[in-house]
Amino acid sequence: MATKQVEQKRDVTIRFAGDSGDGMQLTGDRFTNATAVVGNDLATLPDFPAEIRAPAGTLHGVSAFQIHFSSEDILTPGDQPNVLVAMNPAALKTNLEDLEKGGIVIANEDGFTDRNLEKAGYDGNPLEDGSLDAYQLYTVPMTTITVRALDGVEGISKKEAERSKNFFALGLVSWMYGRPVDVTERWIDKKFAKVPAVKEANLRAFKAGWNFGETTEIFAVHYEVAPAPAAPGIYRNINGATATAYGLVAASVRSGLPLFYASYPITPASELLHELSKHKNFGVRTFQSEDEIAAANMALGAAFAGHLGVTGTSGPGMDLKAETLGLAVILELPMVVVDVQRAGPSTGMPTKQEAADLLLAMYGRHGESPLPIVAAHTPSSCFDAALEAARIAVKYRTPVILLTDTFLANSSEPWRLPDVDTLPDIDPAFATGLNMGEEFWPYLRDENLARPWAVPGTEGLEHRIGGLEKEADSTGNISYDPQNHAWATELRASKVLKLADEISALDVDDPGGDAELLVLGWGSTYGAIRVAVDRARERGRKVARAHLYHMNPFPGNLGEMLRKYRRVLVPEMNTGQLSRLIRAEYLAPAEVFAKVQGQPIFAEELEDEIERRVG
User: Given strand 285-288, what is the order of strands in its sheet?
Assistant: First the structure.
Protein backbone atom coordinates (compact mmCIF):
# COMPACT_ATOMS: atom_id res chain seq x y z
CA MET A 1 0.00 0.00 0.00
CA ALA A 2 1.36 3.42 -0.96
CA THR A 3 2.14 5.87 1.82
CA LYS A 4 -0.60 8.45 2.26
CA GLN A 5 0.31 12.06 1.68
CA VAL A 6 0.01 14.33 4.73
CA GLU A 7 -1.07 17.91 4.17
CA GLN A 8 -0.87 20.61 6.85
CA LYS A 9 -3.91 22.83 7.35
CA ARG A 10 -4.24 25.99 9.39
CA ASP A 11 -7.94 25.52 10.01
CA VAL A 12 -10.79 23.28 8.83
CA THR A 13 -14.59 23.51 9.01
CA ILE A 14 -16.52 20.24 8.83
CA ARG A 15 -20.27 19.75 8.77
CA PHE A 16 -21.83 16.37 9.57
CA ALA A 17 -25.40 16.09 8.23
CA GLY A 18 -28.04 13.36 8.10
CA ASP A 19 -31.45 12.38 9.39
CA SER A 20 -32.33 13.44 12.91
CA GLY A 21 -32.08 9.74 13.78
CA ASP A 22 -28.62 9.28 12.24
CA GLY A 23 -26.73 10.47 15.31
CA MET A 24 -25.13 13.53 13.75
CA GLN A 25 -25.13 15.50 17.01
CA LEU A 26 -23.38 12.62 18.76
CA THR A 27 -20.90 12.26 15.90
CA GLY A 28 -20.07 15.96 16.00
CA ASP A 29 -19.80 15.99 19.76
CA ARG A 30 -17.36 13.06 19.76
CA PHE A 31 -15.26 14.64 17.01
CA THR A 32 -15.23 17.86 19.02
CA ASN A 33 -13.97 16.16 22.16
CA ALA A 34 -11.17 14.43 20.26
CA THR A 35 -10.28 17.79 18.69
CA ALA A 36 -10.09 19.42 22.12
CA VAL A 37 -7.66 16.72 23.25
CA VAL A 38 -5.42 17.44 20.25
CA GLY A 39 -5.20 21.04 21.46
CA ASN A 40 -6.82 22.81 18.53
CA ASP A 41 -8.90 25.87 19.19
CA LEU A 42 -12.47 25.18 18.15
CA ALA A 43 -16.03 26.45 17.88
CA THR A 44 -19.14 24.43 17.06
CA LEU A 45 -22.60 25.00 15.62
CA PRO A 46 -25.20 22.28 16.23
CA ASP A 47 -28.32 22.62 14.05
CA PHE A 48 -31.21 20.22 14.45
CA PRO A 49 -34.98 20.12 13.83
CA ALA A 50 -37.50 20.84 16.58
CA GLU A 51 -39.34 17.55 16.08
CA ILE A 52 -38.25 14.64 18.28
CA ARG A 53 -38.09 12.43 15.19
CA ALA A 54 -38.82 14.28 11.97
CA PRO A 55 -39.86 12.18 8.93
CA ALA A 56 -36.85 10.17 7.75
CA GLY A 57 -35.32 11.26 4.48
CA THR A 58 -37.09 14.61 4.29
CA LEU A 59 -35.53 18.05 4.09
CA HIS A 60 -37.24 19.07 7.33
CA GLY A 61 -35.70 16.12 9.15
CA VAL A 62 -32.06 17.00 8.52
CA SER A 63 -29.82 17.38 11.58
CA ALA A 64 -26.36 18.91 11.22
CA PHE A 65 -23.32 19.65 13.37
CA GLN A 66 -20.56 22.01 12.26
CA ILE A 67 -17.13 22.30 13.85
CA HIS A 68 -14.40 24.79 13.02
CA PHE A 69 -10.98 23.89 14.42
CA SER A 70 -7.65 25.59 13.97
CA SER A 71 -3.99 25.90 14.91
CA GLU A 72 -4.75 29.54 15.74
CA ASP A 73 -7.21 31.40 17.93
CA ILE A 74 -10.71 31.27 16.42
CA LEU A 75 -13.97 32.88 17.45
CA THR A 76 -16.68 31.50 15.16
CA PRO A 77 -17.89 28.08 13.95
CA GLY A 78 -16.84 29.04 10.45
CA ASP A 79 -18.60 30.63 7.51
CA GLN A 80 -18.53 28.03 4.72
CA PRO A 81 -17.72 24.41 5.54
CA ASN A 82 -14.69 22.92 3.81
CA VAL A 83 -16.07 19.40 4.25
CA LEU A 84 -19.64 18.10 4.13
CA VAL A 85 -20.40 14.59 5.34
CA ALA A 86 -23.83 13.77 3.89
CA MET A 87 -25.58 10.61 5.05
CA ASN A 88 -28.50 10.91 2.59
CA PRO A 89 -29.85 13.06 -0.28
CA ALA A 90 -31.78 15.42 2.01
CA ALA A 91 -28.61 16.18 3.98
CA LEU A 92 -26.78 16.96 0.75
CA LYS A 93 -29.53 19.16 -0.66
CA THR A 94 -30.07 21.28 2.46
CA ASN A 95 -26.35 21.88 3.08
CA LEU A 96 -24.61 21.90 -0.30
CA GLU A 97 -25.15 25.60 -1.00
CA ASP A 98 -23.20 26.42 2.18
CA LEU A 99 -20.16 24.34 1.16
CA GLU A 100 -17.21 26.26 -0.29
CA LYS A 101 -16.59 25.81 -3.99
CA GLY A 102 -14.12 23.00 -4.46
CA GLY A 103 -14.93 21.67 -1.00
CA ILE A 104 -15.04 18.01 -0.04
CA VAL A 105 -18.28 16.00 -0.10
CA ILE A 106 -18.19 12.61 1.63
CA ALA A 107 -21.48 10.88 0.82
CA ASN A 108 -22.93 7.67 2.18
CA GLU A 109 -23.87 6.22 -1.21
CA ASP A 110 -26.07 3.58 0.47
CA GLY A 111 -28.38 6.39 1.61
CA PHE A 112 -28.98 7.60 -1.96
CA THR A 113 -31.81 5.17 -2.76
CA ASP A 114 -34.55 6.00 -5.25
CA ARG A 115 -37.00 6.54 -2.39
CA ASN A 116 -34.67 8.90 -0.52
CA LEU A 117 -33.86 10.81 -3.72
CA GLU A 118 -37.58 11.31 -4.32
CA LYS A 119 -38.17 12.53 -0.74
CA ALA A 120 -35.39 15.07 -1.14
CA GLY A 121 -36.81 16.33 -4.46
CA TYR A 122 -34.05 15.07 -6.75
CA ASP A 123 -34.96 13.98 -10.29
CA GLY A 124 -31.69 12.04 -10.63
CA ASN A 125 -28.83 10.91 -8.45
CA PRO A 126 -26.45 13.84 -7.80
CA LEU A 127 -23.64 11.39 -7.05
CA GLU A 128 -23.80 10.23 -10.66
CA ASP A 129 -25.18 13.05 -12.84
CA GLY A 130 -22.20 15.43 -12.73
CA SER A 131 -23.96 18.11 -10.66
CA LEU A 132 -21.22 17.83 -8.04
CA ASP A 133 -18.31 18.29 -10.44
CA ALA A 134 -17.41 21.59 -8.76
CA TYR A 135 -16.61 19.70 -5.55
CA GLN A 136 -14.27 16.90 -4.47
CA LEU A 137 -16.74 14.02 -4.24
CA TYR A 138 -16.03 10.84 -2.30
CA THR A 139 -18.77 8.21 -2.31
CA VAL A 140 -18.47 5.59 0.41
CA PRO A 141 -20.89 2.70 1.06
CA MET A 142 -20.91 3.45 4.78
CA THR A 143 -23.97 1.37 5.66
CA THR A 144 -22.78 -1.68 3.74
CA ILE A 145 -19.29 -1.64 5.24
CA THR A 146 -20.71 -1.06 8.73
CA VAL A 147 -23.08 -4.03 8.46
CA ARG A 148 -20.22 -6.20 7.18
CA ALA A 149 -17.94 -5.09 10.03
CA LEU A 150 -20.60 -5.94 12.61
CA ASP A 151 -21.24 -9.42 11.24
CA GLY A 152 -21.06 -11.90 14.09
CA VAL A 153 -21.81 -9.45 16.93
CA GLU A 154 -24.28 -11.42 18.99
CA GLY A 155 -27.60 -9.68 19.64
CA ILE A 156 -27.21 -7.09 16.85
CA SER A 157 -29.66 -7.37 13.95
CA LYS A 158 -28.97 -5.99 10.47
CA LYS A 159 -31.24 -3.01 11.17
CA GLU A 160 -29.45 -2.30 14.43
CA ALA A 161 -26.08 -2.66 12.70
CA GLU A 162 -27.09 -0.01 10.17
CA ARG A 163 -27.64 2.46 13.00
CA SER A 164 -23.89 2.37 13.81
CA LYS A 165 -23.01 3.97 10.47
CA ASN A 166 -22.49 7.31 12.22
CA PHE A 167 -19.55 5.78 14.10
CA PHE A 168 -18.15 4.61 10.76
CA ALA A 169 -18.38 8.21 9.51
CA LEU A 170 -16.74 9.42 12.72
CA GLY A 171 -13.89 6.94 12.31
CA LEU A 172 -13.32 7.91 8.69
CA VAL A 173 -13.24 11.65 9.32
CA SER A 174 -11.13 11.12 12.46
CA TRP A 175 -8.54 9.38 10.26
CA MET A 176 -8.71 12.14 7.63
CA TYR A 177 -7.89 14.85 10.19
CA GLY A 178 -5.63 12.98 12.58
CA ARG A 179 -7.96 12.80 15.55
CA PRO A 180 -6.87 10.36 18.30
CA VAL A 181 -8.80 7.07 18.39
CA ASP A 182 -8.32 6.32 22.10
CA VAL A 183 -10.51 9.26 23.15
CA THR A 184 -13.53 7.93 21.27
CA GLU A 185 -12.84 4.30 22.16
CA ARG A 186 -12.71 5.10 25.88
CA TRP A 187 -15.97 7.02 25.61
CA ILE A 188 -17.71 4.13 23.84
CA ASP A 189 -16.39 1.70 26.49
CA LYS A 190 -17.84 3.83 29.27
CA LYS A 191 -21.05 4.96 27.58
CA PHE A 192 -22.21 1.50 26.50
CA ALA A 193 -20.62 -0.58 29.27
CA LYS A 194 -24.02 -1.92 30.35
CA VAL A 195 -24.93 -2.96 26.79
CA PRO A 196 -21.95 -5.05 25.63
CA ALA A 197 -23.40 -5.84 22.20
CA VAL A 198 -23.98 -2.16 21.39
CA LYS A 199 -20.53 -1.29 22.72
CA GLU A 200 -18.91 -3.89 20.50
CA ALA A 201 -20.96 -2.77 17.49
CA ASN A 202 -20.01 0.88 17.85
CA LEU A 203 -16.34 0.09 18.46
CA ARG A 204 -16.21 -2.08 15.37
CA ALA A 205 -17.97 0.55 13.25
CA PHE A 206 -15.60 3.28 14.44
CA LYS A 207 -12.53 1.15 13.74
CA ALA A 208 -13.95 0.13 10.35
CA GLY A 209 -14.25 3.80 9.36
CA TRP A 210 -10.70 4.54 10.50
CA ASN A 211 -9.30 1.48 8.72
CA PHE A 212 -11.21 2.29 5.53
CA GLY A 213 -9.54 5.68 5.38
CA GLU A 214 -6.16 4.15 6.13
CA THR A 215 -6.36 1.40 3.50
CA THR A 216 -8.56 2.60 0.63
CA GLU A 217 -7.04 4.25 -2.41
CA ILE A 218 -9.99 6.69 -2.60
CA PHE A 219 -8.36 8.95 -0.03
CA ALA A 220 -4.78 9.67 -1.04
CA VAL A 221 -4.36 12.55 1.41
CA HIS A 222 -5.05 13.06 5.04
CA TYR A 223 -4.62 16.27 6.97
CA GLU A 224 -3.02 17.58 10.11
CA VAL A 225 -3.94 20.70 12.07
CA ALA A 226 -1.33 21.66 14.65
CA PRO A 227 -2.33 22.52 18.23
CA ALA A 228 -3.22 26.14 18.83
CA PRO A 229 -1.09 28.22 21.20
CA ALA A 230 -2.82 28.69 24.54
CA ALA A 231 -2.06 30.29 27.88
CA PRO A 232 -0.89 27.79 30.50
CA GLY A 233 -3.67 26.18 32.47
CA ILE A 234 -6.16 23.35 32.59
CA TYR A 235 -8.66 23.39 29.74
CA ARG A 236 -11.88 21.56 29.03
CA ASN A 237 -14.42 21.70 26.25
CA ILE A 238 -17.62 23.39 27.40
CA ASN A 239 -20.92 24.56 25.95
CA GLY A 240 -22.90 27.56 27.11
CA ALA A 241 -25.55 25.59 29.01
CA THR A 242 -22.91 23.81 31.10
CA ALA A 243 -20.95 27.03 31.61
CA THR A 244 -24.10 28.79 32.84
CA ALA A 245 -24.76 25.97 35.29
CA TYR A 246 -21.19 26.07 36.59
CA GLY A 247 -21.42 29.85 37.00
CA LEU A 248 -24.55 29.53 39.09
CA VAL A 249 -22.96 26.82 41.23
CA ALA A 250 -19.87 29.00 41.68
CA ALA A 251 -22.09 31.90 42.76
CA SER A 252 -23.76 29.62 45.29
CA VAL A 253 -20.40 28.56 46.73
CA ARG A 254 -18.91 32.07 46.78
CA SER A 255 -22.00 33.51 48.49
CA GLY A 256 -22.70 30.61 50.82
CA LEU A 257 -26.28 30.61 49.57
CA PRO A 258 -27.89 27.27 48.69
CA LEU A 259 -28.83 27.26 45.00
CA PHE A 260 -32.49 26.55 44.20
CA TYR A 261 -33.33 26.22 40.52
CA ALA A 262 -36.91 25.80 39.30
CA SER A 263 -37.96 25.54 35.68
CA TYR A 264 -40.46 24.09 33.27
CA PRO A 265 -39.05 22.10 30.32
CA ILE A 266 -38.59 24.32 27.27
CA THR A 267 -36.18 24.25 24.35
CA PRO A 268 -33.36 25.33 24.46
CA ALA A 269 -33.23 26.00 28.23
CA SER A 270 -33.95 22.46 29.43
CA GLU A 271 -30.27 21.49 29.34
CA LEU A 272 -29.63 23.92 32.19
CA LEU A 273 -32.04 21.99 34.43
CA HIS A 274 -30.45 18.70 33.39
CA GLU A 275 -26.94 19.94 34.18
CA LEU A 276 -27.77 21.55 37.53
CA SER A 277 -29.55 18.40 38.69
CA LYS A 278 -26.16 16.64 38.59
CA HIS A 279 -24.68 18.86 41.30
CA LYS A 280 -26.46 17.88 44.49
CA ASN A 281 -23.01 17.54 46.07
CA PHE A 282 -22.86 21.35 46.05
CA GLY A 283 -26.23 21.61 47.74
CA VAL A 284 -28.05 22.41 44.50
CA ARG A 285 -31.78 21.77 44.57
CA THR A 286 -33.64 21.53 41.28
CA PHE A 287 -37.38 21.35 40.69
CA GLN A 288 -39.29 20.70 37.48
CA SER A 289 -42.47 22.67 37.97
CA GLU A 290 -45.91 22.23 36.43
CA ASP A 291 -45.64 25.50 34.46
CA GLU A 292 -43.53 28.59 33.91
CA ILE A 293 -45.43 30.73 36.41
CA ALA A 294 -44.94 28.21 39.18
CA ALA A 295 -41.21 27.99 38.44
CA ALA A 296 -40.80 31.76 38.75
CA ASN A 297 -42.83 31.89 41.95
CA MET A 298 -40.80 29.06 43.46
CA ALA A 299 -37.51 30.81 42.66
CA LEU A 300 -38.79 34.04 44.22
CA GLY A 301 -40.01 32.13 47.27
CA ALA A 302 -36.59 30.54 47.62
CA ALA A 303 -35.02 34.01 47.51
CA PHE A 304 -37.34 35.18 50.28
CA ALA A 305 -36.22 32.16 52.31
CA GLY A 306 -32.55 33.08 51.98
CA HIS A 307 -31.52 30.98 48.98
CA LEU A 308 -30.03 31.89 45.63
CA GLY A 309 -33.30 31.65 43.70
CA VAL A 310 -32.95 31.02 39.95
CA THR A 311 -35.33 30.13 37.17
CA GLY A 312 -34.59 29.56 33.50
CA THR A 313 -36.62 29.56 30.31
CA SER A 314 -36.83 30.82 26.75
CA GLY A 315 -38.97 33.54 25.13
CA PRO A 316 -42.49 32.12 25.64
CA GLY A 317 -41.67 31.34 29.26
CA MET A 318 -40.45 34.90 29.82
CA ASP A 319 -43.92 36.12 28.86
CA LEU A 320 -45.45 33.97 31.58
CA LYS A 321 -42.90 34.95 34.22
CA ALA A 322 -43.53 38.67 33.76
CA GLU A 323 -45.97 39.04 36.66
CA THR A 324 -43.60 37.34 39.10
CA LEU A 325 -40.73 39.50 37.87
CA GLY A 326 -42.81 42.58 38.65
CA LEU A 327 -43.42 41.18 42.13
CA ALA A 328 -39.69 40.57 42.57
CA VAL A 329 -39.00 44.19 41.59
CA ILE A 330 -41.35 45.60 44.22
CA LEU A 331 -40.30 43.06 46.87
CA GLU A 332 -36.64 43.87 46.06
CA LEU A 333 -35.40 40.32 46.48
CA PRO A 334 -32.37 38.80 44.71
CA MET A 335 -33.41 36.47 41.93
CA VAL A 336 -31.82 35.42 38.61
CA VAL A 337 -33.85 34.65 35.48
CA VAL A 338 -31.94 32.95 32.65
CA ASP A 339 -33.46 33.57 29.21
CA VAL A 340 -31.98 31.26 26.55
CA GLN A 341 -33.34 33.12 23.53
CA ARG A 342 -34.71 31.34 20.47
CA ALA A 343 -36.45 32.21 17.22
CA GLY A 344 -40.01 33.39 17.85
CA PRO A 345 -42.65 34.60 18.34
CA SER A 346 -44.74 31.91 20.04
CA THR A 347 -43.36 28.45 19.35
CA GLY A 348 -41.57 29.92 16.34
CA MET A 349 -38.49 27.83 15.50
CA PRO A 350 -37.57 26.49 18.93
CA THR A 351 -34.22 24.94 17.99
CA LYS A 352 -33.04 27.85 15.85
CA GLN A 353 -31.02 30.94 16.67
CA GLU A 354 -32.33 34.42 17.41
CA ALA A 355 -31.63 37.10 20.00
CA ALA A 356 -34.84 39.11 19.99
CA ASP A 357 -35.72 39.31 23.70
CA LEU A 358 -33.72 42.43 24.58
CA LEU A 359 -36.70 44.78 24.55
CA LEU A 360 -38.73 42.13 26.38
CA ALA A 361 -36.07 42.02 29.09
CA MET A 362 -35.99 45.82 29.28
CA TYR A 363 -39.70 46.57 29.24
CA GLY A 364 -41.70 43.34 29.35
CA ARG A 365 -43.43 44.02 32.68
CA HIS A 366 -46.29 46.31 33.58
CA GLY A 367 -45.61 49.54 35.39
CA GLU A 368 -42.20 51.05 36.01
CA SER A 369 -40.21 47.93 36.92
CA PRO A 370 -36.56 48.31 35.89
CA LEU A 371 -34.02 45.58 36.53
CA PRO A 372 -30.40 44.85 35.54
CA ILE A 373 -29.67 42.79 32.42
CA VAL A 374 -26.46 40.88 31.70
CA ALA A 375 -25.67 39.26 28.32
CA ALA A 376 -23.18 36.46 27.67
CA HIS A 377 -21.13 36.67 24.46
CA THR A 378 -19.35 33.31 24.04
CA PRO A 379 -20.17 29.81 25.31
CA SER A 380 -17.50 29.95 28.02
CA SER A 381 -18.43 33.53 28.99
CA CYS A 382 -21.78 32.15 30.18
CA PHE A 383 -19.89 31.15 33.33
CA ASP A 384 -18.82 34.73 34.07
CA ALA A 385 -22.19 36.14 33.05
CA ALA A 386 -24.06 33.81 35.42
CA LEU A 387 -21.68 34.66 38.26
CA GLU A 388 -22.08 38.39 37.55
CA ALA A 389 -25.88 38.17 37.39
CA ALA A 390 -25.97 36.46 40.79
CA ARG A 391 -23.52 38.97 42.27
CA ILE A 392 -25.62 41.92 41.15
CA ALA A 393 -28.84 40.29 42.34
CA VAL A 394 -27.48 39.67 45.83
CA LYS A 395 -25.67 42.98 46.25
CA TYR A 396 -28.51 45.16 44.99
CA ARG A 397 -31.46 43.04 46.16
CA THR A 398 -33.02 42.89 42.72
CA PRO A 399 -34.09 40.40 40.09
CA VAL A 400 -31.58 40.16 37.23
CA ILE A 401 -32.15 38.81 33.72
CA LEU A 402 -29.30 36.86 32.15
CA LEU A 403 -29.56 36.70 28.35
CA THR A 404 -27.96 33.82 26.46
CA ASP A 405 -29.26 32.20 23.26
CA THR A 406 -29.56 28.94 21.36
CA PHE A 407 -26.16 29.28 19.71
CA LEU A 408 -24.38 29.98 22.98
CA ALA A 409 -26.20 27.22 24.86
CA ASN A 410 -25.44 24.51 22.29
CA SER A 411 -22.10 25.63 20.89
CA SER A 412 -18.85 24.67 22.59
CA GLU A 413 -15.27 25.90 22.84
CA PRO A 414 -12.15 25.30 24.98
CA TRP A 415 -12.39 26.92 28.43
CA ARG A 416 -9.49 27.50 30.77
CA LEU A 417 -10.61 26.63 34.27
CA PRO A 418 -10.49 29.74 36.47
CA ASP A 419 -8.60 29.97 39.72
CA VAL A 420 -11.44 29.61 42.20
CA ASP A 421 -9.72 31.94 44.68
CA THR A 422 -9.89 34.79 42.15
CA LEU A 423 -13.65 34.56 41.70
CA PRO A 424 -15.54 37.48 43.26
CA ASP A 425 -16.79 37.14 46.81
CA ILE A 426 -20.55 37.56 47.11
CA ASP A 427 -21.68 38.67 50.55
CA PRO A 428 -25.41 38.21 51.19
CA ALA A 429 -25.06 40.39 54.32
CA PHE A 430 -28.25 39.08 55.89
CA ALA A 431 -29.94 41.34 58.41
CA THR A 432 -29.23 40.04 61.88
CA GLY A 433 -30.65 42.68 64.19
CA LEU A 434 -32.75 45.81 64.60
CA ASN A 435 -31.71 48.73 62.43
CA MET A 436 -33.83 51.65 63.57
CA GLY A 437 -33.70 51.96 67.31
CA GLU A 438 -36.06 49.36 68.73
CA GLU A 439 -37.52 48.55 65.30
CA PHE A 440 -36.60 46.68 62.16
CA TRP A 441 -37.23 48.60 58.97
CA PRO A 442 -37.20 46.16 56.03
CA TYR A 443 -36.83 48.94 53.43
CA LEU A 444 -34.13 51.05 55.04
CA ARG A 445 -31.52 51.65 52.35
CA ASP A 446 -27.75 51.11 52.39
CA GLU A 447 -25.21 53.00 50.26
CA ASN A 448 -26.24 50.90 47.23
CA LEU A 449 -29.93 51.72 47.81
CA ALA A 450 -30.41 48.03 48.65
CA ARG A 451 -32.77 47.03 51.43
CA PRO A 452 -31.99 44.55 54.23
CA TRP A 453 -32.40 40.82 53.47
CA ALA A 454 -33.99 39.27 56.54
CA VAL A 455 -34.42 35.49 56.43
CA PRO A 456 -37.84 34.41 57.75
CA GLY A 457 -37.56 33.08 61.26
CA THR A 458 -34.83 35.49 62.35
CA GLU A 459 -35.91 36.61 65.81
CA GLY A 460 -37.13 40.18 65.98
CA LEU A 461 -37.01 40.76 62.23
CA GLU A 462 -40.57 39.86 61.36
CA HIS A 463 -41.80 42.11 58.56
CA ARG A 464 -44.47 42.52 55.94
CA ILE A 465 -43.88 42.01 52.21
CA GLY A 466 -46.24 41.89 49.25
CA GLY A 467 -47.08 43.34 45.89
CA LEU A 468 -48.81 46.46 47.16
CA GLU A 469 -46.86 49.71 47.14
CA LYS A 470 -45.13 50.39 50.42
CA GLU A 471 -43.18 53.00 52.33
CA ALA A 472 -40.16 52.42 50.18
CA ASP A 473 -37.31 53.68 52.33
CA SER A 474 -38.43 52.75 55.79
CA THR A 475 -41.09 50.51 57.34
CA GLY A 476 -42.40 48.78 54.23
CA ASN A 477 -45.95 49.43 55.42
CA ILE A 478 -48.60 49.62 52.70
CA SER A 479 -48.93 53.13 51.32
CA TYR A 480 -51.21 54.75 48.75
CA ASP A 481 -49.64 58.17 49.21
CA PRO A 482 -48.98 59.72 45.75
CA GLN A 483 -45.64 61.25 46.73
CA ASN A 484 -44.45 58.00 48.29
CA HIS A 485 -45.26 56.09 45.10
CA ALA A 486 -43.31 58.61 43.03
CA TRP A 487 -40.40 58.35 45.48
CA ALA A 488 -40.53 54.54 45.51
CA THR A 489 -40.52 54.45 41.70
CA GLU A 490 -37.50 56.75 41.61
CA LEU A 491 -35.68 54.70 44.26
CA ARG A 492 -36.08 51.43 42.38
CA ALA A 493 -34.87 53.05 39.15
CA SER A 494 -31.96 54.79 40.86
CA LYS A 495 -30.81 51.52 42.40
CA VAL A 496 -30.49 49.93 38.96
CA LEU A 497 -28.77 53.00 37.51
CA LYS A 498 -26.32 53.03 40.42
CA LEU A 499 -24.90 49.78 39.11
CA ALA A 500 -23.31 51.79 36.28
CA ASP A 501 -20.88 53.27 38.84
CA GLU A 502 -19.17 49.90 39.31
CA ILE A 503 -19.38 48.11 35.96
CA SER A 504 -16.42 48.39 33.62
CA ALA A 505 -16.29 51.22 31.12
CA LEU A 506 -16.95 50.24 27.53
CA ASP A 507 -13.67 49.15 25.95
CA VAL A 508 -13.43 50.29 22.33
CA ASP A 509 -10.86 48.59 20.12
CA ASP A 510 -9.69 51.36 17.78
CA PRO A 511 -5.94 50.95 17.17
CA GLY A 512 -5.42 54.18 15.25
CA GLY A 513 -8.03 56.22 17.07
CA ASP A 514 -9.34 57.47 13.73
CA ALA A 515 -11.88 54.84 12.71
CA GLU A 516 -14.66 55.87 10.36
CA LEU A 517 -17.07 53.23 11.64
CA LEU A 518 -17.77 51.70 15.05
CA VAL A 519 -19.24 48.19 15.04
CA LEU A 520 -21.13 47.81 18.31
CA GLY A 521 -22.48 44.43 19.35
CA TRP A 522 -24.01 42.43 22.15
CA GLY A 523 -24.56 38.75 22.84
CA SER A 524 -23.32 36.01 20.54
CA THR A 525 -22.45 38.36 17.66
CA TYR A 526 -19.09 38.81 19.43
CA GLY A 527 -17.06 36.32 17.39
CA ALA A 528 -18.43 37.39 14.01
CA ILE A 529 -17.75 41.04 14.83
CA ARG A 530 -14.16 40.42 15.84
CA VAL A 531 -13.39 38.34 12.76
CA ALA A 532 -15.18 40.68 10.33
CA VAL A 533 -13.48 43.79 11.74
CA ASP A 534 -10.06 42.11 11.61
CA ARG A 535 -10.61 41.20 7.95
CA ALA A 536 -11.71 44.77 7.16
CA ARG A 537 -8.58 46.14 8.82
CA GLU A 538 -6.42 43.79 6.76
CA ARG A 539 -7.84 45.55 3.68
CA GLY A 540 -6.93 48.92 5.13
CA ARG A 541 -10.36 49.91 6.40
CA LYS A 542 -10.53 52.08 9.52
CA VAL A 543 -13.02 50.26 11.70
CA ALA A 544 -13.44 50.15 15.49
CA ARG A 545 -15.34 47.59 17.51
CA ALA A 546 -16.91 47.33 20.97
CA HIS A 547 -19.15 44.85 22.74
CA LEU A 548 -21.73 45.33 25.46
CA TYR A 549 -22.07 42.87 28.35
CA HIS A 550 -24.23 44.92 30.72
CA MET A 551 -27.40 45.79 28.84
CA ASN A 552 -29.09 47.63 31.70
CA PRO A 553 -27.69 49.90 32.80
CA PHE A 554 -25.31 50.58 29.95
CA PRO A 555 -21.68 51.43 30.79
CA GLY A 556 -21.34 55.03 31.92
CA ASN A 557 -19.07 56.01 29.03
CA LEU A 558 -21.22 54.55 26.24
CA GLY A 559 -22.65 57.90 25.16
CA GLU A 560 -19.19 59.49 25.03
CA MET A 561 -17.85 56.61 22.92
CA LEU A 562 -20.75 56.77 20.48
CA ARG A 563 -20.25 60.48 19.90
CA LYS A 564 -16.68 59.87 18.74
CA TYR A 565 -17.76 58.06 15.60
CA ARG A 566 -19.53 59.37 12.52
CA ARG A 567 -21.20 56.03 11.85
CA VAL A 568 -22.21 53.20 14.17
CA LEU A 569 -23.19 49.75 12.87
CA VAL A 570 -25.11 47.42 15.17
CA PRO A 571 -25.29 43.78 13.98
CA GLU A 572 -28.21 41.99 15.65
CA MET A 573 -30.15 38.75 15.38
CA ASN A 574 -33.39 40.71 15.57
CA THR A 575 -34.80 43.62 13.61
CA GLY A 576 -32.80 46.27 15.46
CA GLN A 577 -33.59 46.28 19.18
CA LEU A 578 -30.26 47.53 20.55
CA SER A 579 -30.06 50.13 17.81
CA ARG A 580 -33.46 51.47 18.90
CA LEU A 581 -32.24 51.78 22.48
CA ILE A 582 -29.04 53.48 21.34
CA ARG A 583 -30.88 56.00 19.19
CA ALA A 584 -33.45 56.72 21.90
CA GLU A 585 -30.95 57.11 24.73
CA TYR A 586 -28.05 58.83 22.98
CA LEU A 587 -29.44 60.14 19.65
CA ALA A 588 -26.59 58.22 18.03
CA PRO A 589 -26.70 57.44 14.28
CA ALA A 590 -26.99 53.69 14.84
CA GLU A 591 -27.40 51.67 11.65
CA VAL A 592 -28.77 48.15 11.73
CA PHE A 593 -27.55 44.93 10.20
CA ALA A 594 -30.41 42.59 11.07
CA LYS A 595 -30.55 38.84 10.57
CA VAL A 596 -33.58 36.76 11.56
CA GLN A 597 -33.10 33.54 9.62
CA GLY A 598 -32.67 31.11 12.50
CA GLN A 599 -28.89 31.12 12.02
CA PRO A 600 -26.06 33.11 13.64
CA ILE A 601 -24.54 36.10 11.90
CA PHE A 602 -21.52 34.85 9.97
CA ALA A 603 -18.32 36.85 9.72
CA GLU A 604 -18.44 36.91 5.91
CA GLU A 605 -21.91 38.50 5.94
CA LEU A 606 -20.82 41.19 8.37
CA GLU A 607 -17.61 41.77 6.46
CA ASP A 608 -19.69 42.60 3.39
CA GLU A 609 -21.84 45.01 5.42
CA ILE A 610 -18.75 46.81 6.72
CA GLU A 611 -17.32 47.06 3.20
CA ARG A 612 -20.57 48.60 1.93
CA ARG A 613 -20.18 51.41 4.47
CA VAL A 614 -16.46 52.16 4.39
CA GLY A 615 -15.28 50.58 1.13
Answer: 285-288, 259-263, 308-313, 335-341, 399-405, 373-375, 550-552
